[in-house]
Amino acid sequence: MSKLTRVLTLMAFTSAAVLTAPPAHAAITGQSATNTATTVTYQFAHTGAPAYARTYIDTDRDPATGFPQAGAGADYLLENAGLYRHNGGGWSWTLVGPVTYSDAGGTARWTLNRTDIGETATPNDADLVFQVEAPLETSARYTHTYSGGGGSGRTVTYTPTTDAFANPERGLYHHTGDCDKNDFSLATLRSYRADQHISLVMCVFYLAEFRNGPISQAALTQLQQQLDTVRAAGLKTILRFAYTADPDGADAPKDRVLAHLDQLAPYLGGNADVIYLMQAGFIGAWGEWYYTQNFGNAGTVTAADWANRKAVVDKILGVLPRDRMVQLRTPKFKRTMYATSPLPPGQAYDGSPLARLGHHNDCFLASPDDFGTYENIAVEYPYLQAETAHVVMGGETCAPNPPRSDCPTARDELTRFHWSYLNTDYHTGVLAGWNTGGCLPEITRSLGYRFALTSGTYPTTAPRGGALPVTVTIRNDGWAAPVNPRGAELVLRNTTTSAVHRLPLSADPRRWQAGDTTTLTRTLTLPATLPPGGYELLLNLPDPRLPARAEYAVRLANQGTWESATGLNKLLHTVTVT
Questions:
Q1: For residue 425, what are the domain limits?
Q2: Contact 415, 448 (CB under 8 A)
């Protein structure tokens, strides 16, 4: 059976269903049509692996002529690599010839000559209907207005998704309380990401044996091994050091802590790529600064104790790379040691102590004051709300306390205080209540940033060595912005050779605040040496310290855009470079 006979037989068999079934849109997104002076390109994203991808083309925009499909009257049909002309009188087609066609990575794309469909910029537009089979899915009618061959822009509208997925430096985390003794399992860490959409693990590294002397090389080697495993798994760590997990608070004196930080400095600097953040730690039981033998015990803290506490924090800030933040256990600590006013937005991310000190709450919602986390909520709530717009906030729950620990208050305070991460292991009773109350999926999605494309405008053609004007609009549907540096670049990928060219966008995703919509309007310059041809546009938000690792790039919350193998987000548009 010839291809044409096979196609016509199949289509005749399915035509009744095509004509009578209501259009289904779930599998088709990102529809687009662009043109040059001589060619037209159609593309769309789809799910699954359909045997057939189709575009119905109504060149006269008259539903009364041609083959009826979703409100259009198709004069031409593209199916896989063939172009067919409608003969009139029902299901009757003639093969015009082969066209350039690809279907890879969930995107079907055709390029054909405009003259093959009788288009000469008159009437200057066409109606299109996109389709895949099997199962059969049909798009709504889409109108393409020809640019006449010029470089005028075309706007793509993107479809958001509510799917849960892993993204770096945000979300739920798993807690490891004896990181100095219990080796991370590479397989287990990888399963967190693959099976649970978790990209963070906490490492509480105890230094109990070294209260009276230097850290041993064996312990430092253990720390390096743990961080190497985290890196191999594609995760990052929340790092804390402590001397005791006993309420006796048997920690080390200030000078010993400072000496230990000198020993740790090369390990912190050499592994900053997988250190999401560092909690101040060191002082007191569990490194939480309350029960302590050397820094003011059980809330009785003298001026000298505060000075010693600040010396430890200053030292941490000095040995940890300047692009990483440090968290303090309560708002009072930062307000006492540094400034009572919240960080001014103009000083955000400037590398100063105020800009690098965030907060963690390890008894979230457990009592009216979260077991002593707050001293005066009338003052500290507004302070924390302003602070956490630009410094990191996270932690864990520690006890059920309904109704305060139920969904309404949890959702309100997680949003208000811009939470980026939360312990998934504790407290199980609180998390179970959120699951029963129906807010756990929202919390899982909304912790930290959640960037989604809303629209983009791009040219259809651009000259080598010339301007490439682009406009991309992105909404942050998460509760926080990223806190560590993050790159942004437009990627051009040749549709024939797959060669990649990267153009920086001069944007700082840390400024894309929770709930805000950001529009990037940039006029980029194409390299004069860029080979002519078709280029797919993609957006990359890489980790500057791990730019080649796809696991550490940001995935956008859209349908049909993510490439897990490359860490790139497809913009569903192709530009022709001349």
A1: 338-447
A2: no
